[in-house]
Amino acid sequence: MTSLFDRLKRDAAPEWAAYVEHPFVRGLGDGSLPAESFRHYLVQDYLFLIEFARAYAIGVYKAPNLMEMRKAAAGVEAILAETNLHLTLCAGWGLDAAAIEAAPAARATIAYTRFVQEAGLRGDLLDLVVGLSPCVVGYAEIGTALASRAPRLADDNHPYAAWIREYAGEAYQAIAAESLDQIERLARDYLTEARYPRLLEIFRQAVRLEAEFWQMGLTLAD
Ligand SMILES: Cc1ncc(CO)c(N)n1
Questions:
Q1: Which residue is catalytic, options 15, 82, 90, 135?
Q2: In the chain, which ranges are continuous DSSP H helix?
Q3: Which of 49, 72, 89, 132 is 20 to 30 Å from the Cα of 116, by its Cα?
Q4: What is the ipTM of this complex?
């Protein structure tokens, strides 16, 4: 049987392609992305991760049992740990945590984080994890694709090597695999055909908001 995640991805195929093959992603891969766009994106992504961790934390509250509660808590930890990459890269540009946190959130950042928080508050844990899945699973897919394609990644001349290595790396791939397991586990207990269209709508919107996040970085939008 098709997994819930594969079904969602197939039913939102055009939106998924627009996300994982966005021009920003192409620029990351071949190194042609303007440094200014990457910096704007990364500062916003730091702000994103703080609010995204808050969305994950809703999963701790919504967990139907202790095992799911522990998994959700580990998810919060993993998202918060991801900010270390951002702090390392930002330190190279003379930006510390206080400076990044003082930056105003862009509308794309607010739209995406508030959308997933609200989907989780309104629904159950399955609604929440479906809304969170394009993030972790998508970046794992993008990281793997870029690492296999990117020229010059082996030497350190590639301007975005650290970013690509982080998301292609074993630790991040393991987090994405956990996330997929969690969706399928919850689907077994809570998925009905009647609620599938609503889950697809949450998924589709989250994927669109991911593409808009890249677009915000590319165009330096506030
Ligand atoms: C916008 C966005 N989506 C996904 C991830 C992966 O955690 C991230 N860091 N930022």
A1: 135
A2: 4-11, 13-20, 23-30, 35-62, 66-91, 97-101, 107-122, 125-149, 161-168, 170-190, 196-219
A3: 89
A4: 0.98
**From CA 25, how far away is CA 80, in angstroms rounded?**
23
**Residues ≥6 apart with Cβ < 8 Å to 127:** 119, 120, 198, 199, 202
**How close is the Cα of 27 to the center of ligand 1, in Å?**
17
Q: Give the C-alpha separation, 137 to 151, whole Å.
A: 23
> Which residue's alpha carbon is at the smallest distance from atom 7 of ligand 1?
136
* Spans of all domains in the chain: 4-219
- Other beta carbons less than 10 A from residue 67's beta carbon: 10
User: What confidence category does residue 134 fall into, taking pLDDT thresholds of 50, 70 and 90?
Assistant: very high
Q: Does residue 210 have an active-site annotation? A: yes
Tally of residues, the chain: 222
* Sequence-ordered list of residues with C-beta below 8 angstroms from that of 2, at least 6 positions apart, any chain: 10
- Spatial separation of the C-alpha atoms in residues 17 and 211, rounded to whole Å: 9
Among 32, 8, 29, 11, residue whose Cα is nearest residue 20: 29
- Alpha-carbon distance 50 to 97, whole Å? 12
Q: Which two tokens stand for residue 94?
A: 């003379």
pLDDT digits (tens, 9 = 90+) for 78-126: 999 999 999 999 999 999 999 999 999 999 999 999 999 999 999 999 9
**For the structural domain made of 4-219, what CATH number should be given?**
1.20.910.10
Crossing angle of the two packed helices 35-62 and 66-91, in degrees rounded to 10: 160
